[in-house]
């Protein structure tokens, strides 16, 4: 009989861990309007509000003069500026900071992040059309401009930026660029 309460406690703990892993983030602040396209319905946008959960594969976009803040279960915070669109590509929250992985795709707009310190090889990446910014225990901003250029600004810590190959079409003069501001 004593094993039954222990079983229910263990099942509850496992359910909470699975729920947190599936969620990834919660909307912790919202100023203006924002919408989400869920991974199961990628072409259907629904309004979001403070407290809503954002899961792996979901995409969030903000309206004009709007901002949204996402609180990740690992303690990191990600903010989106006006007219921004960001997808939560992958989120692996683990007890071992070496195994943590957060990956986002910033399609357009501005994202500011304060990344929880991870001792070891944990990853936090923001990808744009022309670059990938990877960090650990850092505060930084990434702008994905409409001309496909990327701006990375570092406020604290260090950011590694990798430029993806860019192939120009015949007669095309503009090429995406990366600008890093200290």
What does the model show?
- The protein has a 15-stranded mixed beta sheet that branches.
- It has one helix spanning 3-23; strands at 25-31, 34-37, 45-47, 53-54, 59-62, 67-72, 77-80, 85-92, 101-114, 123-127, 131-135, 139-144, 150-156, 159-163, 178-181.
- Residues 4-22 and 173-177 have low confidence and may be disordered.
- It is globular and about 35 Å long.
- With 182 residues, the chain is mainly beta.
- It has 1 helix and 15 strands.
Record the SSE blueprint.
Elements (H helix, E strand, L loop, with lengths): L2 H21 L1 E7 L2 E4 L7 E3 L5 E2 L4 E4 L4 E6 L4 E4 L4 E8 L8 E14 L8 E5 L3 E5 L3 E6 L5 E7 L2 E5 L14 E4 L1
Termini separation comes to: 62 Å
User: How many domain modules?
Assistant: 1
Percentage of helical residues?
10-25%
How is the quaternary structure best described? single chain
Pick out the low-confidence regions.
Answer: 4-22, 173-177
Q: What's the Cα radius of gyration? A: 18 Å
Number of helices: 1
Shape: globular
* CATH class group: Mainly Beta
Task: Give the name of the CATH architecture.
Answer: Sandwich
Q: In the CATH scheme, what's the topology name?
A: Jelly Rolls
Category by helix and strand content: mainly beta
Largest pleated sheet: 15 strands, mixed
Total count of strands: 15
Tell me the series of helices and strands, N- to C-terminal.
HEEEEEEEEEEEEEEE
Query: On the 0-100 scale, what is the average pLDDT?
Result: 75
Approximate strand percentage: over 45%
């Amino acid at each position: 009989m004593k094993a039954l309460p222990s079983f229910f406690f263990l099942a509850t703990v496992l359910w909470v861990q699975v729920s947190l892993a599936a969620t990834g983030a919660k909307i912790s602040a919202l100023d203006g309007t924002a919408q989400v396209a869920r991974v199961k319905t990628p072409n259907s946008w629904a309004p979001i509000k403070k407290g809503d959960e954002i899961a792996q594969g979901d995409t969030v976009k903000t309206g004009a003069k709007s901002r949204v803040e996402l609180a990740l279960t690992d303690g990191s915070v990600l903010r989106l500026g006006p007219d921004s669109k960001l997808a939560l590509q992958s989120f692996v929250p683990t007890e071992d900071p070496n195994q943590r992985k957060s990956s986002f795709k910033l399609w357009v707009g501005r994202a500011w992040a304060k990344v929880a310190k991870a001792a070891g090889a944990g990853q936090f990446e923001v990808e744009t059309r022309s670059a990938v910014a990877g960090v650990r225990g850092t505060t930084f901003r990434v702008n994905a401009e409409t001309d496909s250029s990327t701006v990375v600004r570092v406020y604290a810590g260090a950011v590694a930026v990798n430029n993806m190959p860019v192939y120009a079409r015949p007669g095309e003069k503009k090429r995406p660029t990366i600008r890093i501001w200290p």
